[in-house]
Each structure stands twice: as C-alpha cells, then as structure tokens.
Design a protein that fits this description.
This protein has six helices and five strands; from the N terminus they run αααββαβαβαβ. It has about 150 residues and is α/β, with parallel strands linked by helices. The strands form two sheets. A three-stranded parallel beta sheet has the order 4-3-5. Strands 1-2 form a two-stranded antiparallel sheet. The longest helix has 30 residues, at about 60-90.
Length: about 150
Amino acid sequence: MDLIRHLRFFVTVAEEGHFGRAAAALDMTQPPLSQGLRKLEQHLGSELVHRTRQGAVLTPAGAELLPRARLLVDDADRFLAEAGRVARARGLLHWGATRALPDRLVTLCVGTLSRHGEATVSTRSASTVELVDAVRSGMCDLAVVEHPA
C-alpha cells in the first residue's frame, strides 16, 4: 500500500467534507478514492470517516489522526520537490507520456529534450491521472497527457 497516497486521500476527503469534491480535487474518480480510503482504514484498523448522504464526517479517530496525516503529506511533498531540485541540478530530466502517445513521438521527444538541455532524460509511461499526480508531486518535470486532464 502506498501510505502517502492513501493519507493524501484521507486529508483531501477531510478538507473537502465530500467524496465527490475530494475526487475532483485529486483529479480522479470517486470509486478509487473511496476504495483507497477504506484500504487505509483497514490498514490502520480504525474508521476515519463516517460516510453520510450529505458527505463525509470525521470520526473521533479521524479527527485525532488528521493533523499527523497532514504533516506527513506535506513533508512528502517537500521531499519530492527537493529530490526534483537535486535531480535537475545534476542534469536529469524526468518526463512522462501517456501510453497512447505513439513510440515515434516518444523517441522524438526524448531526443529533443536531451539536445535542448544537455540533460539525461528519464521517461515514464503511465495514465493521465498518474502523470498529473507525478508532475504535481515533483516526480516528473513535465508530462504529455490526454485531454481532458
């Protein structure tokens, strides 16, 4: 289980007070968000959120754990940003492309990126949602995604 990812789900649901709005804020659909939060609750052995028709309400355990979850998520974001800064300083460029991008275009992009910045280029292939998350977290410097993202 990706603990930081699942903690991010928890923090966003707590902040938005609603699964639909939290999913939109995370650029994902509601079912995987809900499943991810349930997985986190099972892992912790404690219910964090009461699901109601009006939205999501923190349980006493959720209210107690939320500040620590926010700290961990924020610290992970700072760590990823710093790692990106270090990689860029070393001439390493991380980029991603959706699987729908033809191989010849991926090859052209890598060649152009390598020549433009005299950098070592690291390429990843993933879904639009995964790539947007990677750019936001600092794991990718840029990404070619499918619209709408």
